[in-house]
Write a structure and sequence with these properties.
mainly alpha; 3% strand; 434 Repressor (Amino-terminal Domain); single chain; 7 helices; 58% helix
């Protein structure tokens, strides 16, 4: 699936990855091995938001290893800044609905009437 990437989202997806990893009882090193990475420091950097971003294929791989599916996987995609082009286009046509979408994704809402 092609997506549009939104910048500035690495800390939020990092928190989601950390929560899912810990919920599965895995260490950073355990997840790194599943991803074919030598050490857990890569996972630590992802979780801390120190990486520039997470590509869609890597995000899908991480989600699969951590058994993240359905709505939660879509929430991860949005948190990482990956939006399906149709959704991105719809939001651009109706920016007044952004707060509604953010609310559904569990994001913070802006106060209405502010630019």
């Amino acid at each position: 699936m092609a997506t549009t990437t939104i910048k500035g989202t690495t800390k939020k997806i990092g928190r989601l990855i950390r929560t899912a990893r810990m919920g599965r009882g895995l260490t950073q090193k355990d997840l790194a091995k599943k991803l074919g990475v030598r050490s857990g420091s890569y996972v630590g950097m992802l979780e801390s938001g120190l990486c520039k971003g997470i590509g869609l294929s890597r995000l899908e791989e991480i989600a699969s290893h951590l058994n993240v599916h359905g709505v939660d996987r879509y929430r991860w995609m949005a948190a990482a800044g990956h939006l399906p082009p149709g959704l991105f286009g719809a939001l651009m046509k109706s920016p007044d609905r952004w707060d509604d979408v953010l609310g559904m994704l569990g994001g913070r809402m802006r106060k209405r009437g502010r630019a």
